Amino acid sequence: METYKNLKIIGTSHISIDSVNEVESIILSVKPDIVAIELDKLRFYSLSSKGKKVSIKDIYKIGIKGFLFNLIGAWIEKQLGKIVNVKPGSEMIKAIESARKVNARVALIDQDIRITLKKLSKQLTWKEKFTFVNDIFKGIFSKERIKIDLRKVPDKKLINILIKKLRDDYPTLYKVLIEERNLVLAKNLNKLMTTNKSIVAVIGAGHEEEVLRIIKNGNK
């Protein structure tokens, strides 16, 4: 967890039981005024079973590539979650539940997922598509593996290695999924900070370091 002024940031893994426990423990002990979570309205309602998920009807809005990327990403995350018996997004659900227990306001600070997926559909290059297919085959047949304990949040060194690989191999994915959303998350958190209320933010560990740096540098 990182602390800056009236903000505490918890960097999580979306399928880690350690993240679920950490989120609950910190929110219940800190009792913040606001719990900010890395969700938009669509994913919030989808996660809490109060609304629909991105469906095939959304293709005309977000594009076929964005739709397929979301479908594949959700499937992979679900399969990994089964390995550790943790439903993807469980730490976000726990954050919402814990916020209600301490009467904290829940703030949704992420960009609308339909905007993100539409950008992917428009900007994803053929080179990145071929690299993706190649990486799948390499993942199936290669003996080289990066050992990751899915129950825990990867350490910062490993996170930086993975982010660098994403930036080098998939510049569009990095730009749309990481870089641009870091700016959105930082901007929304900075706006909440101006209220001078105590805030606990729950965001993916891959965003934590850069979002905090942007906030400290005045959203630059």
Main sheet specs: 5 strands, mixed
Q: Could you give the count of β-strands?
A: 5
Q: What is Rg?
A: 17 Å
Number of helical stretches of at least 4 residues: 10
| Element pattern in H and E | EEHEHHHHEHHHHEH
Describe the oligomeric state of these chains in a short phrase: single chain
Which class do the helix and strand fractions yield? alpha/beta
Mean pLDDT: 81
Q: Give the helix proportion (percent range).
A: 55-70%
Description:
The protein has 220 residues and is an alpha/beta fold. It has one domain (2-216). It has helices at residues 17-30, 41-47, 59-62, 64-84, 90-101, 113-123, 126-141, 156-169, 171-193, 205-216, and strands at residues 2-4, 7-12, 34-37, 105-108, 199-204. Strands 1-2-5-3-4 form a five-stranded mixed beta sheet, sandwiched between helices. Strand 1 and strand 2 (7-12) form a beta hairpin. The two termini are 22 Å apart. 30% of the residues are buried.
Could you outline the blueprint of secondary structure elements for this entry?
Layout: E1 2-4, E2 7-12, H1 17-30, E3 34-37, H2 41-47, H3 59-62, H4 64-84, H5 90-101, E4 105-108, H6 113-123, H7 126-141, H8 156-169, H9 171-193, E5 199-204, H10 205-216
Parallel strand pairs: 2-5, 3-4, 3-5
Antiparallel strand pairs: 1-2
Helix pairs in contact: 1-5, 4-6, 6-9, 8-9, 9-10
Task: Describe the structure using short key phrases.
5-stranded mixed beta sheet, 220 residues, single chain, globular, alpha/beta, 10 helices
